[in-house]
Amino acid sequence: MRTRSPLRLSLQEREEVSRCVLAGESMRSIARPLGHSASTVSRTEEPWTR
Predict the structure, then answer these.
(1) pLDDT band per the 50, 70, 90 thresholds, residue 46
(2) How many domains would you assign to the chain?
(3) What's the pLDDT tens digit per position in 13-32?
(4) Strand (E) or helix (H) holding 3
(5) Do the domain assignments include residue 34?
(6) Would you say residue 28 lies in a domain?
(7) pTM of the model
(8) Fewer beta carbons below 10 Å: N end or C end of the chain?
(9) Side-chain half-sphere exposure of 40, counting CA atoms within 13 A
């Protein structure tokens, strides 16, 4: 089984990002408690804004 890079978000983290984006939170405020950079979160968030 392959392990995920620690730089990528887990499924639970992606779901949390989705909820926070829909609630109107900023990328930085979403990323901070997850322990990831805002740029990692913004790359994950992109498909939901299209």
Answers:
(1) low
(2) 1
(3) 999 999 999 999 999 999 99
(4) none
(5) yes
(6) yes
(7) 0.76
(8) N
(9) 16
